[in-house]
Amino acid sequence: MASDRLATSTGTRPKDALAAYLSDLAAQLHGPRRRREAIFTELRDGLEQATEDRIATGLAPDQAAAAAISQFGSPGAVADAFAGELTTAYARRTIAWFIATGPLVGIWWLLLLHPGPWRTGLIAFLAAIPVIPLIIAAIATAGPSLRPGA
Amino acid sequence: MRPELLKGHLDALLLAVLEPGPQHGYAVIESLRSGSGGALDLPTGTVYPALHRLERAGLIASDWQTVGGRRRRAYHLTPAGQIALSEQRALWDKFSTAVTALLKRRTWPATA
Fold first, then answer.
1. Domain spans in chain A, listed from the N-terminal domain onward
2. In a domain, B95, yes or no
3. Do B45 and A25 touch (CB under 8 A)?
4. Would you say residue B51 lies in a domain?
5. From B27, B43, B71, residue closest to A77, measured CB to CB
6. pLDDT confidence band for A99 (50 / 70 / 90)
7. Which domain holds residue B33?
8. Taking residues B69-85, what's their average pLDDT?
9. CA A76, B23, A52: angle at the middle one, nearest 5?
10. Measured between CB atoms, does A91 come within 8 Å of chain B?
11. Pick from A72, A82, A85: which is nearest to B44 by CB?
12. At what angle do helices B25-35 and B48-56 cross, to 10 degrees?
């Protein structure tokens, strides 16, 4: 790993500074986990490259890391810049989830509200599923994904 | 350079930087800085979201590569991005010509 290269060749301080910056940033990113992880990986690569470039121009490693971090902008500013994109990703995922699960939940509600003697075959099979616990389970599953921090 | 001057032009500039060939995010941002002679010195971390927005708009695309054991995201222009860049160039030529003509120091015709 590049971060390991930085650490072994130059002591641990630059690596620690980069890690501290990245964890500060990660704490301020909100949105789907996979998107946040991809952003984290991409920015870590950029930050390490920026540090290495500065070391190559003759800066001491800890100065190079500090310069790279200051060039990247404060974690708050970077997180703010990403907020719009992450909110969009989150909204798209939530809508997709509703579209995927809506019909099933709808069938359960219908079965709950219209218990009748017309249940045969597949309908009877679906009706045999305890509806209320399933609706509760569906709401419980949706809960975490409805929170932006999830 | 005042950031509000850059607003609205950043997308075209990013597309232009990617025109010669694929680059990873950090290299794109460095090209922006060096290509402008340091005038466009944005905080690096705030340019990545602009790249992501362009990708969502279908103007650029990205793929992950592993370079020296490091996972790296490289961006390239899509055909739609190439078209958008040509349009932005034509628009900018028109706009900059008009602004230059108006901002040029000159003696206005006397109104009397």
1. 2-146
2. yes
3. yes
4. yes
5. B43
6. confident
7. 3-100
8. 94
9. 60
10. no
11. A72
12. 110
